[in-house]
Design goal:
The protein is of the alpha+beta class. The protein is built from 6 helices and 6 strands; from the N terminus they run H-H-E-E-E-H-H-E-E-E-H-H. It has a 6-stranded antiparallel beta sheet. Helix 3 runs antiparallel to helix 4. The longest helix has 23 residues. The N and C termini lie far apart (about 40 Å).
Length: about 180
């Protein structure tokens, strides 16, 4: 290795590390209220789910003005799909994950019946946003168009827990979304 090449490599590495450090100290990203459904959205985290190496979706979590995750605050979770799913596949996935996380709850059939009204087929590039401004209500939007507004006891924690719970299928992804 020539000395000037080695120096250039070291300087590039230092510049890259400095940029990474600056980005990690940057304030949370702000998003538009129309895209998130929140009045003062602050992005907490973002993560990409992959299955067998293929991207399934990228998820982004926003809170209402807060810079830390908490179930007691309004939340907005956006899923940008990298592949297609039928509405039935989305509902079945929801059911499987809720049963895996919570076990069989007596009100699960009623909650799933309500959520079934929300789902539409998705294609690559489509985005679903779940907006939970209070503990018992979730509004869902597909590509900016409202598909439903569902009320059910503790729906924010139970439904969004599929992605945000420490017991979710991917604890690493959940932690990234929560900004941890």
């Amino acid at each position: 290795m020539r000395p000037e090449t080695g120096l250039a490599t070291v300087l590039s590495l230092i510049a890259g590390l400095s940029l990474l450090a600056a980005l990690s100290l940057a304030p949370p990203l702000l998003a538009s209220s129309s895209a998130t459904g929140l009045k003062a959205p602050v992005q907490l985290g973002q993560a990409t789910l992959r299955f067998l190496g293929f991207e399934v979706y990228t998820a982004t979590l926003h809170t209402e003005g807060a810079q830390r995750f908490g179930w007691d605050q309004p939340l907005s979770l956006r899923l940008d799909y990298a592949r297609s799913f039928s509405n039935q596949e989305l509902l079945q996935g929801t059911q499987k994950e809720l049963q895996r996380i919570e076990g069989t709850q007596p009100d699960l059939p009623e909650m799933l019946q309500k959520l079934a009204t929300c789902y539409r087929p998705v294609q690559q590039g489509d985005s679903y946003v779940a907006i939970a401004t209070d503990p018992d209500t979730v509004e869902m939007r597909l590509n900016g168009q409202r598909t439903c507004r569902v009320s059910h006891p503790d729906l924010r924690r139970r439904f969004l827990g599929i992605w945000l719970s420490p017991n979710s299928r991917s604890a690493r992804l959940s932690a990234q979304l929560r900004g941890e």
